[in-house]
Amino acid sequence: MSSMSRTVPPTADVVILGGGVMGTSIAYHLAEAGVRNIVVVERGELGSGSSGKPIGGVRAQFSDPLNIELGSRSLRAWQEFGQRPGADIRLDSVGYLFALTSDQQAADFETAVRIQNSLGVPSRMIGPREAHQLCPYLSTDGLVAAAYSPTDGHARPGLAVQGYARAAARAGVVFATHTTVTGLDTTGDRVTAVHTDHGRISCSTVICAAGAWSERLGAMAGVHLPVRPVRRQLAFTAPLTPPAPRIPFTIDFASTAYFHNSDDGLLFGLADPDQADGFDTTWTPDWLTLFRAAVQRRAPALADMETTSGWAGLYEVTPDHNALIGRAGAPHNFLYATGFSGHGFLQAPAVGEIMRDIHLERTPFLDVTPFCADRFTTGVQTRPEIHVV
């Protein structure tokens, strides 16, 4: 699938910056629509950035209607991925379960569930007893309520990247891996070329889907993409005997500690609130101390489980935890889909469709104008997403 030469094609109609799940989804959707001469430039292997996460959650449980619709449409695409584009992503529709420990959390999630239901999402509020039945690890002590949607779940981002990329490559998309963007040429209100360490590509359109690295690439075109990299870590338990029950993707909302099935054990995750910005992806086992302290009350059996390995990757975070999706005012042929703040994998199919339509100047299924990158400088009211992990 990768371009094996040490040079890149000299010309392209579309150059996509970033070969993760977002870049490959966009490439696939463009190629499926008949767009030709597409080059995807990736500094490492495909999916080696934030999409390298071993298991990614997929859900439509959000507080913002735009995120609900992006998640819901993507869920349908993930469910049909075996037929289109044709790959097994090991989707497990176990549901998402948010454990809520305050009346304010419960009230906020009740509001969100009403919005979700109005948009066709089968989420519902449940009591502590039913939450424990769904996830036996949960302690009901101090549990006020929970929010649950049975059609959410998790899948394998790496398999999704490969599935999109194989289908795109069959349609003629060139993947230039181990290729670093070194600069962009602009003339007037257009980007005219992408410079890489393997050569220059003259192009008609550039689409930035570079995740945590997007701010520096946007700057090359004079476009401000306010994305900062934040390390997130997770760990895997040793194989469990007896095997773990099949449980939802379970989140203690107050602490952000989460856990779900992973092969023959469980996967643990937690967002460290004191994590400094940066591109360091070293896994630090002492991070587990934070997780164990967080679950001691909510899921005490997990606090003593042996872990065997871990992973660290980058979230691409924006000020309001919502994505940046759209077309720059100038240069006008610079498009972007980035800053998903941990939700990129789960929204990738829908965003691939939207970027296809923006490029082809069609009307997308969803108006994503509120996600324009200049919303933070134009005085437009932002809409913070509260269902953030």
From TrEMBL:
Signal peptide: none annotated. Pfam families: DAO. The keyword Aminoacyl-tRNA synthetase does not apply. Residues 13-357 form the FAD dependent oxidoreductase domain. SUPFAM superfamilies: FAD/NAD(P)-binding domain (SSF51905). It comes from the Bacteria. The keyword Disulfide bond does not apply. InterPro entries: FAD-dep_OxRdtase (IPR006076), FAD/NAD-bd_sf (IPR036188). Keywords: Oxidoreductase. This is FAD-binding oxidoreductase. It comes from Streptomyces decoyicus.
